[in-house]
Amino acid sequence: MNQTRVNQLADRIRVIVAEMLERRVKDPRLGFVTITEARLTGDLREATVFYTVLGGDQDQTGTAAALESAKGLVRSEVGRQLGLRHTPSLAFVPDAIPENAKHIEDLLRTARDSDAEVARRAAQATHAGDADPYRTPREDEDLEDDLDEDQDESDDDNDDNDDLDTGSR
């Protein structure tokens, strides 16, 4: 099936599941759940619904159990609203986005700390040799004299090459 159509159906499944959990599923174990994404296989037989839960591990396990028990009700509503020949089976999977985001934030914090340390050390650093290790440009007159000498030498070299070219064989 066309991938665009599959993506549209997956997005529609995400919306339907989110509305069902908000309005019709009244399980007290269901915490602050957010449906982040839905993926649908190309043959439209299986849908994976990713979710996040605000809270601790106990809230995570309670929400997972509530989603499993409400799976049949949610699947029948998905089938009714989509109007497909075969209603896709649903699998609820906790989304790893919050853990990945926390890991990335930790890496960025470490990088900022090391950058601050490098900047602090650079501010305290002194030159290893002279204060100005770069060559200073020579005076313009000296430069012109050197250019004139180089030009004279290249003219002499060209004269020698001309003598060689005109010789007989």
UniProtKB/TrEMBL annotation:
PROSITE patterns reported in the protein's UniProt record: RBFA
Gene (name only): rbfA
Top-level division of the source organism's lineage: Bacteria
Name of the protein described by the UniProt record: Ribosome-binding factor A
Organism per entry: Actinopolymorpha pittospori
Organismal lineage: Bacteria, Bacillati, Actinomycetota, Actinomycetes, Propionibacteriales
GO molecular function, one term: ribosomal small subunit binding
Recorded family membership: Belongs to the RbfA family.
Record keywords: Cytoplasm, Ribosome biogenesis
Quaternary context: Monomer. Binds 30S ribosomal subunits, but not 50S ribosomal subunits or 70S ribosomes.
Database matches in PANTHER family: RIBOSOME-BINDING FACTOR A, CHLOROPLASTIC-RELATED (PTHR33515:SF1)
